[in-house]
Amino acid sequence: MLYDAFLELLNLWVLVAAVVGIVVGIIIGAIPGLGPTMAIALLIPVTFSMEPIPAIILLLGVYQGAIFGGSISAVLLNVPGTPSSAATAIDGFAMARRGEGGRALRFALYASVFGNIFSCLVLMALAEPLARFALDFGPAEMSTLMLFALLVIVLFGGGSRLDAFIMVMVGLCASIVGLDPISGTPRFTFDSFAMENGFQLIPVLIGLFAMSEVLLQVFEREPVVSKSEVPALKSSVVRFVEFWRMRVTLLFSSVIGTFVGILPGIGSTVPAFMSYNLARSRSAEAESFGKGAPEGVAAPEAANNAVTGGALVPTLALGIPGDAVTAVILGAFMLHGLAPGPFLFRDHGLEVYAIFEALLLSSIPTVILGLLFFRVAIHVTRIQPRHLLPAILIMAIFGAFSVNNSLVDVWVMLGAGVFGFVFRRSGFPLPPLLIGLILGMPFEQSLRQALLTSGGSFGIFVGSPITIGLLALIVFSAGLSLFFGVRKSRNG
User: Fold this and answer.
1) Residue 147 to residue 230: CA distance in whole angstroms
2) Is 423:430 a contact under the CB 8 Å cutoff?
3) What's the pLDDT score for residue 239?
4) Fewer C-beta neighbours within 10 Å, C or N terminus of the chain?
5) SS3 per residue for 242-273
6) Given a cut of 90, is residue 58 above it in pLDDT?
C-alpha cells in the first residue's frame, strides 16, 4: 500500500500542487489579517477540475505554509500573521530588534518542519487504527462521540464558554434546515426546492471566513500592519549544534501540538502558548525568555505546526474536524468523493496514504521555499489585506456559484458573510459554529437511529463499554473544566 501510494506521487501535477500550495500558504500567512482558513475556503472551488490527490495536497500545502508564514510577520513586525504565531512574536521580535531576525526565522522554519514531520508520523500511526476501531461504532456510540466532541469545543476551545455554546447551538440550528434525515419531510425550507438539501457547506465556508473578512476590512479604520520600520535581515546561519541542544524542547512541543490538536475545536493557539510556557519553565536560562531566546521561537512553532497532523487524525478517522481549518478541508474531501470517517481507509486507502506521504515529503520544499522567501519576506509583510479585497470578493462570488451553478448558493454565501461579520465584530468565535454545522446532521441522525433501535429508551447509551467510556469522558471533561474555572476565579 505504501509503495503504491508513493507511485501516485510521481506525478508532475502533484509536485506543482504541493509547491503552489506552500508558496500561497506562506504568503497568506505572512500577511497579518488573513489566514489559512480563508485561503483554503477560497481555493476549494479552484480544485473542482483537479484529481483528488493533487487537490487535497494543494489545500494541505496552504495549511502548512500559512502556519509557518505567520511567524514571518510575527518576527519582523511583532504582528502575528496567524493567531498561533502570537507566542512566536514574544522572542522572535526581540531577536529581530537586535539584528537577528534571520536567525529567528531560521529557527522558526526548522522547528516548523520538525513539528510537521512528527505530527505526520503520528497521523500515519493513529488514523487507520482509530478508523478500524470506529467501524465497531453503532448509532449510539457515534452520537455519544459527537456529543463529546461538541462538549470539548465548548469547554476547552478558549474564550468564553457561553459564547462557544451559543455558536455551537447556532451551527446545530443551521444544520437542521432541509429534509428530515429519517422521515424526509422538509424543515425550514420555506417552500424553496433549492433549500431542501440544506445549507451547502462550501458557500457557508466561503461566506464565514472570506466574505466576513472582506466586510471586516471595509469597516476597519486602522490598518492591520504597523508602519514601523522593519528590522533589517542580516545574513545568519543556524548551526546544527544549536538546534540539537533544544531537541527535548522540540520533542515536547511537538507532542503537545499533536495531541492537543487531536482534541476537536482547540486549534493551534493554545498548544503554542502551552509549549512556550513549558520551554520557559524547563530552561536553565528562563530569564532570557521574552528578551530574544531562540527556544522561545522554536517551541511555539514546533507546536503550532504539529497541530496540522494532529487535527487531521479525528478529521479523517472519525469525520470530526480537529479545528476550523480541518473543517474546511473536510469539505474538500467530501467534494472529491473521499468522505472522511471509518470507511475512508477501506474504500480510499491508496489516496489517503498518498496524501500522508505527500505531507511528510512536503517538508523538503517547505525548507527550500522558506529559505528563499526570507529575502522577499519584508515586501510581503507590507501588503495590506485591504489591497486584496477586490480579488477576494470576486473569488468568493464565483467560488460559491461554481459549487452547484446556483445563485441560491451565492445568496447563502453572502448571508453567511454578514452573519460571520456580525459575530466576529461582537467577539463570538466562528470555529464552534462551523463544527456545529458539520456535526449537526450526523449527530441528529445517529441519535434518532439509536432511539428508534431501542424503542425510545435512553438505556441504549449505557449498553456498551464504548458508550460508557465516552460518557465517563464527558463527565470527566465537565468536572475538569469546572475545576479550572473555580481555580481561575480564586486566583483573581
Assistant:
1) 47
2) yes
3) 79
4) C
5) HHHHCHHHHHHHHHHHHHHHHCCCCCCHHHHH
6) yes
